[in-house]
Predict the 3D structure of the following.
Amino acid sequence: MLQLPHQSLQVAAVPAQRTAAREDQDGPWHTEAVCRRDEAGLFFAPSKEPTAARLSREDAAKRVCARCPVMVECREHALLQPEPYGVWGGLTAAERRVVLARRRRREMELKKSASAA
C-alpha cells in the first residue's frame, strides 16, 4: 500500500516497461528516470480506482515527472510506442492520445499544403 499525504491508495502491479528503441552515448535514457527509484506505483492505475484517487495519483506522478531529467525522452518513447497505460513523461494515456491526434492532424495539414504548392 502506497501512502500519500492524507490518503492511501492500493497500487496494482506495475506493467513491465519496454526498453526504448533508441539509446544515446551514455546508455538508455530510462536508466536516469526518477520513477525507477521508488515511486513507480504512482504511474499505473489499480483496477477499479475511484476517480478522485486516480486524479490525485496522476497529479503526484506528474510532480515526479516534472523533476525528472529524462522527462522529454520518456514522453517521446510513450508517444512512439505508443504506451496505452500509465503516466509517461508527465502525460496520462488520455493526454498522450490528444497529443498524437494533434500530431496526425498537423502532418495531414503539412502534406496538403506541400501537395498544393
Notes: The first helix runs from residue 51 to 66. The CA atoms of residues 46 and 72 lie 25 Å apart.
